[in-house]
Design goal:
single chain; alpha/beta; Rossmann fold; 7-stranded mixed sheet; two-stranded antiparallel ribbon; 9 strands; binds S-adenosylmethionine
């Protein structure tokens, strides 16, 4: 187990190259690039696949799910404009890579996963790596009202609609980042909550996520 969590010069070098790739693809926020350069993405892979860990690709993590493509993680994170101390709700913990990026930026993270196997695994692995979000098991399409409001909400699975429940759980001035579309492709949407019932919405680039499954989802 201990051997698995070694961050050697080969992986550190590969991570630097990944940061350069993301810069070329248009990620400009230096803080986001900096944390991508720090979080050891290969820890989320079986050692046999470490040579895949710093390619800008999504990768299977079991239970029919994927670790998100680094570009997608950087893109969504950039849109969140994380400030130190921000209370962030992440829907779709998966393996927890995105969670680590948010924590490294100084956010307080509430993360929810619907698949028990992934929830149990990530709940063990992240603290072992030194990352301590608040873990929840359940349907994140309804948010986590008990801990609301949040400064930021990020959804890491593709939704058919923007669930109202998530908007009500944002503070005024808060931001929701969510991919919305059909099962094949989604547009990244950001919603800025400008007043109790006022929102400013922006529809951005096209992505392909695994589906958000739940009450306010597929
Ligand atoms: N954030 C992860 C990362 O850093 O690589 C990737 C997450 S993966 C693309 C999407 C995750 O959303 C899957 O683990 C899936 O089980 C989860 N998911 C789908 N619907 C959900 C729901 N309603 N509530 C919570 N998690 C959900």
């Amino acid at each position: 187990m201990a051997y698995k969590y070694i961050d050697n010069y080969r992986e550190q070098g590969a991570r630097k190259k990944l940061v350069e790739i993301l810069k070329k693809k248009g990620i400009a926020d230096e803080r986001v690039l900096n944390v991508i350069g720090m979080v050891p993405r290969h820890f989320f892979f079986d050692e046999t696949f470490w040579n895949q860990a710093y390619k800008d690709i999504a990768f299977p993590i079991g239970a029919g799910q994927t670790i998100s493509q680094p570009y997608t993680v950087a893109y969504q994170t950039e849109l969140l404009h994380i400030k130190t101390g921000d209370k962030v709700l992440e829907i779709g913990t998966g393996c927890g890579y995105q969670t680590c990026i948010l924590l490294k930026l100084g956010a307080k993270v509430y993360t929810i996963e619907r698949q028990e196997k992934l929830y149990e695994r990530t709940k063990q692995v992240l603290p072992f790596m030194g990352y301590k979000p608040n873990f929840f098991l359940g349907d994140g399409s309804k948010g986590i009202p008990e801990h609301a409001p949040y400064n930021k909400i990020i959804v890491t699975a593709g939704a058919p609609i923007i669930p109202d429940t998530l908007l009500t759980q944002l503070v005024i001035g808060g931001i929701l980042v969510i991919p919305v579309g059909d099962e094949k492709s989604q547009k990244m949407v950001t919603v800025l909550k400008t007043g109790e019932y006022d929102y400013e919405e922006h529809v951005l680039d096209t992505f392909r996520f695994v589906p958000l499954v739940g009450d306010k989802a597929w």
